[in-house]
Amino acid sequence: MFPHHREREQPIFSTRAHVFQIDPTTKRNWIPASKHAVTVSFFYDANRNAYRIISVGGTKAIINCTVTPSMTFTKTSQKFGQWADSRANTVYGLGFATEQQLHQFSEKFKDVKDAARLAREKSQDKELANTALTIAAPQFSQSPPVMCVNGPEDKLFRSQSADITLASEKERIKKMLSEGSICEINLEAELFTLQDSNSKLVAALHEANANVEQWKKQLAAYQGETERLREQVSELEAHGGQGPSELLKDELTQSLEELEALLKAKDEEIHILQSKKAEYHEMEHERDEAILRLREMEMRSSELERRIQNTEQTLSNSLEERDRMDTEIQRAIEILDIKIFDLNDLRQSLVKLLDK
């Protein structure tokens, strides 16, 4: 039942952009439909006189939108724009690399919308003309069942039923994907917070260990200096007991007094270092507690990684199910298009037959 050859769609404009879809739950947040910038193209079907926006990411269609005169492309920023698709029950958003690309896409969208409006008006005028010819032929006024079966009312009813079924299926799939994405984002945020806390604790422990080592070295140096001074004092006392001159005694006495003052200062420094040593033990205790918390966080991180893997597996299954549903929906759309085309062709053939 193909009296005419069906021409393929031809691309008329292409650009690259990041594709987003509105969150079906909140109707406010954007959900990325692609990880990277993808090609977004306008296609023209000369056989059906229709325009479509199509973007494919990998093996699946990210955008498959038929342009209608009621659609409006809105620029929301210098590099971002959006439009609503009532058939898919969603809002598409495009993020461009430059403002010029956004302007080119907006202008092309406007031109295509105007062309779609003119095509619809021509189609309506043609239908009105066919209807007028049919009404003007009195000899065929007794054939309403044939016109009813293949007329626009039955076609509209079938299209609306198909749109409602496809929209409900797409809404269910999008809801499943949004729930999985939100769960994955929450888990990644929690894991990132734990990793940041771990890095801060490790840095604090390294700093504490460096300070303790420095204090130990200073304490050992002061203790060695104290022992050396005490030995010098002992040597001076031993030399002083051998009957040196008065001048040598005065010098030794002065040196001994200076050494005693220095030793007193060193003893005070040692006392301060000993108090710092107590603080060091306290820091060691805090370090042990931090290490214990770090281990607990690592265990929790492992549990979160396991949950993320399970979520990714669930998401992968959901994506496979969505791909399968998209394939089935596309096949159903193609079948419906063929049936509608056949019915329209049959209708035109019947009109021609009635005209004869």
pLDDT < 50 runs, ≥5 residues: 1-7, 136-159
Q: Work out the strand percent.
A: 5-15%
Q: Please outline the major beta sheet.
A: 8 strands, antiparallel
Helix/strand order, N-terminal first = EEEEEEEEHHHH
| Rg over CA atoms | 42 Å
Overall mean pLDDT stands at: 77
Question: How many separate helices?
Answer: 4
Multimeric state: single chain
Q: How far apart, in Å, are the first and last alpha carbons? A: 21 Å
Percent of residues in helices = 55-70%
Content-based structural category = alpha+beta
Instruction: Give the tally of β-strands.
Output: 8
Which shape, going by the Cα principal axes?
rod-shaped
Characterize this entry briefly.
The chain is 69% helix and 15% strand. With 356 residues, it is an alpha+beta fold.
Features:
disordered N terminus, 8-stranded antiparallel sheet, alpha+beta, 4 helices, 356 residues
Question: Care to describe what's here?
Answer:
With 356 residues, this protein is an alpha+beta fold. It is 69% helix and 15% strand. Strands 1, 2, 3, 4, 5, 6, 7 and 8 form an eight-stranded antiparallel β-sheet that branches. A hairpin with a 4-residue loop joins strand 3 and strand 4. The longest helix has 110 residues, at 246-355.
Secondary structure layout:
Layout: E1 10-22, E2 30-32, E3 38-45, E4 50-57, E5 60-66, E6 74-75, E7 80-85, E8 90-95, H1 99-136, H2 144-150, H3 152-240, H4 246-355
Helix pairs in contact: 3-4
